[in-house]
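Worked problem 6 (solution included).
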Amino acid sequence: MEFPSKLIEEAVTEVAKLPGIGKKTALRLVLHLIKEHESKTQALAQALVRLRENIRFCKNCHTISDEDECTICRSHRRDRSVICVVEESKDVMAIENTAQYNGLYHVLGGVISPMHGIGPSELKIDSLLARLGRMSGEAREIILALSPTLEGDTTAFYVNKKLAPLSLRVTAIARGVAVGGELEYTDEITLGRSISARVLFH
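Solution. The predicted structure is:
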């Protein structure tokens, strides 16, 4: 692809590094920003810089947060007896959008994937066990809401094994979610039903 300007080429190269955006889409976005008032481009750039400089992760559940403790963990209205274990913060957002769940969360930060060099020690599994220890029996159910992929199932089995000595009720979301799919792309009705119709994890 030929560019009339090195500046455009550099911008397109960086934007195209975002997931799901190819060179053509990146070029269209860059040209759109050029046409917009300069203040809009500066506002976008400043928002991204603030994001990188100030974003935090909740000290309890590890979801994305503005403070050391997220609003969900701080809320007294949440059911603290249930913790939903998910891969990423985007899964917390997806489940929250269903309005079918009122418990707490725990973000693992990914799934076990030997092909990508990700083992149990790279995930927040030990953090979950330590958190349950601090809760002194307050938590009674763990929901494993991991994507129904080979890696997700492997991670769920591993987490379930680690939880076995704690005598907790361990459930998994019902498989209304398509096998091989990701929670982020599941429609809200299906995801909501999967949470409501969760089953015991075996």
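Discussion: The chain has two domains: 6-54, 57-200.
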